[in-house]
Amino acid sequence: MAVITLTTDFGSRDPFVGIMKGVIATRAPGVTVIDVTHGIPPQDVLAGALVLEHAVPYFPEGAIHVAVVDPGVGSSRRPLCVETATALLVGPDNGLLSLAAPMGSVQRIVHLTDEQVFLSPRSSTFHGRDVFAPVAAALALGTDAARLGRTIDHMVRIERPAAVVGPGGIRGEIIYVDGFGNLVSNVDDNALTAFPRDAVSITIAGACLRGIAASYSAVAPGEPLAVMNSWGLLEVAVRDGSAQTRLGATVGTVVEVGRP
After folding, report:
1. Do 144 and 171 belong to one domain?
2. What confidence category does residue 6 fall into, taking pLDDT thresholds of 50, 70 and 90?
3. Residue range of the domain that includes 186
4. What is the pLDDT of residues 100-152, one digit of tens each?
5. Contacts for 91-94 with beta carbons within 8 Å, 24 or more apart?
């Protein structure tokens, strides 16, 4: 049985997610639909791409991942289905799908054009309902992606900002803030290879932290700390609190890592 996942910036206040699920249930009754999140910050394509990148590997092979963070809806941007060895990714051609589909993993990119599959009339503001949900349902029923449009050789790509590693330290930045206010940086395990984890110095928004903790419980409640999170990235958190609020930091804030 096929699995469809949904990742959007629609939130829970409005009916958009429920309507997409209604389209899928009508077109492909009984298919499992799993919400990854609908809490992507509005129009934040990079945040959506990061979430999709780190969610896709934990779903069954062949799962259909619908992602809608689409500030260009109704414009000339293309709707896509991207096929990799393990997944089908459906969404707008704005970079949202690209981190979950590195160039070496892409087997086919289809520009979705089949009006017979889309809902009609098609809204210029809600392609989640009229394009992406019915496409996902068709794929779940076994339709080959190539029948839904024409194969193309490229897609819009975005890159995760790269940390700069020098002999004296690392200069990175915050690239994602989760619902707890934890500050996720672009400093990964590879960048930290040459630095002593127990004594490394981490500076952010005027605060200086010493060492990378093994867990959130390594400090007293209300105290900041650094950990390596489940994405393999350096994260600054506050135990039982919000690092974003405590430090006044957000996406784009500089993080510097150095030796003690």
Report:
1. no
2. very high
3. 164-258
4. 999 999 999 999 999 999 999 999 999 999 999 999 999 999 999 999 999 99
5. 91/66, 91/67, 91/132, 92/68, 92/127, 93/155, 93/156, 94/45, 94/69, 94/70, 94/156
Measured distance CA(70)–CA(8) in Å, rounded:
9
The answer to whether residues 67 and 171 belong to one domain is no
pLDDT tens for each residue of 17-51:
999 999 999 999 999 999 999 999 999 999 999 99
* CATH code of residue 75: 3.40.50.10790
pTM above 0.90, yes or no: yes
My answer on whether 75 and 110 are in the same domain is yes
Sign of CA dihedral 225, 242, 34, 185: negative
What's the total number of domains in the chain? 2
Sort strands 183-188 and 201-204 into parallel, antiparallel or unpaired: unpaired
Q: Are 138 and 199 found together in one domain?
A: no
Are 135 and 179 members of one domain?
no
Which residues share a beta bridge with 37? 7
Q: What was the pLDDT predicted at 184?
A: 98
Question: Are 18 and 99 in a shared domain?
Answer: yes
What lies within 8 Å, CB to CB, of 241 at 6+ separation is 181, 221, 222
pLDDT for 167 equals 82
The C-alpha angle 50, 54, 56, rounded to 5 degrees, equals 115
